[in-house]
Predict the structure.
Amino acid sequence: MARITAGIATSHVPAIGAAFDQGRDQDEYWAPVFAGYDWVKEFQRREDPDVVILCYNDHASAMMLDVVPTFALGMAEEFDVADEGWGRRPVPQVIGDPVLAAHLAEQLVIDEFDLTLMNALEVDHGCTVPLSLMFGRREEWPVRVIPLAVNVTQFPTPSGERCWRLGEAIRDAVESYPAGLNVQIWGTGGMSHQLQGERAGLINPEFDNAFLDKLSDRADELRKITRLDYLREAGTEGIELIMWLIMRGALGDKVEELHRFYHVPASNTAVGHIVLRPQG
Ligand code: DHB
Ligand code: FE
């Protein structure tokens, strides 16, 4: 039987990808950010996961405003790395798992999550920056990846509570898959940031640290955070934290926190990262 063995959340700042690609990761500004991910690289060497269900958001890289799916599941054999205006990142192609993805799609639709099935999808920094942070520089990514893109670009975005329940349904779907796979679930985006408007540059460490504190055993409080709360407290792009709730919802009631990192700022963003292990 397949099992979710860990849940990982991280910010996905595009400038981290650029610093990494251009070999600036040991610059004074960037070194503390990358150091925050040394632990997880070692963890991944030990864990050797087979598949990552990677919950992220597209930033109008693959999905422009003509089509805005709420939840879009990557069904393809592989996913091209998007060109986001600076050229394609020089990172490996992202390899999918179409058989597990088809199983997830079927089970999630049975569970009343009417997904958009993406038989072709380019993945942007929401996917590729976390892959670089978790696995470093590689010729090939050491895992298969099933991308799950969530709409946070156009109202109405799904609620945190809806995301949590999607996570629960993903866990049930994984556990009903007969192959003995080691599956991780990741949520990327956040933490507090706002990229435009009068409050551009907003960062709220108090909100972010409370979110990190509550994620393990007071997550019920996080499920109640409304979209307006995210906007007020964590800025316009703070809504990206709902992807963390899909991850957390997929881990069940009890989790153990294995690692945590928080750093301000990277580009315009508060960088947060946490590694959780489901218990039982
Ligand atoms: C930044 C952060 C993001 O999460 C993003 O998607 C784009 C930009 C930033 O801090 O610049
Ligand atoms: Fe983002």
